[in-house]
Amino acid sequence: MRPRVAARGSLDDRLIDLDIRKFAHVSNVRCSLPLKRRKILKFGRCRRTVRHLGRGGGIGRRSGLKIRRWQHLGGSSPPPGTTLICDPMLPPMKYCSNCGSLVGRTVPADDNRERWVCNHCDTTHYQNPLIVVGCVVEQEGRILLCKRAIEPRYGFWTVPAGFMELGESLADGAARETLEEACAKIEIGHMFASIDVIHAGQVHMFFTGKLKGGFGAGDESLETQLFSEADIPWDDLAFRSGRFALQKYFEDRGCNNGVHIHELR
Ligand SMILES: [Zn+2]
What we know:
- Helix content is 10%, strand content 36%.
- The protein has 265 residues and is mainly beta.
- It folds into 2 domains: 12-128, no CATH class; 130-264, Alpha-Beta Complex (Nucleoside Triphosphate Pyrophosphohydrolase), CATH 3.90.79.
- Strands 10, 11, 12, 13, 14, 15, 16 and 17 form an 8-stranded mixed β-sheet that branches. A 6-stranded antiparallel β-sheet has the order 1-2-3-4-5-6, with no helix packed on it.
- Strand 1 (6-7) and strand 2 form a beta hairpin.
- The longest helix is centred in the middle third of the chain and has 13 residues, at 170-182.
- The structure holds zinc ion.
- Zinc ion binds at residues 96, 98-99, 101, 118, 120-121, 123.
- Zinc ion is lined by residues 96, 98-99, 101, 118, 120-121, 123.
């Protein structure tokens, strides 16, 4: 008998909620928590009954799914008791970059987290957070900001920052982004802020820097400008991570107080 199910939304059409009263025959596991719902996850040929253990079982709001009982209909599977991470943030992927075949979303046998795995060559495509590097550049007490010429946040102000490239250090990346966005050469200082941007799957890391010479507007900037602390356009800043970095920069007053850690969700 197939229970009536309700689609949960666009996050993952394979993650569906089931009303426990209509699905009591599937699982005879006693619930120690006041559960109202159980979730069924389908991984290709596997169907597993899992129990939601709440926030304590993993990382992120929807993690912490622990198998108590499953109906294994085929394919590889981790051993009973394994905590499975079913990540709704897993970015979409359709084709394998190794062979061009279709990929499928599954939990590899030696893993506990959903990955994209090639149906043909079995390559597992790991996807991890990206690093953004930026710099708070100062000249005689004023801070260099860029007005964004691209989305997201077109027209809002930001400290020079962007994605780190392969083959460069964090400091190299911060200096490069400053050169690209503000046409400014700098003397790089110390790293002073690290922000986990959980919802975006990114880590933003900021350095101090001193301006060496002139500056201008790079391709991604409408204009660049030096601002005193009193004139920082706080209401028109593009990103919360940049706001945090600027706040901590001014609090430090030029001292190296280590790295300020912050978390955004
Ligand atoms: Zn492949």
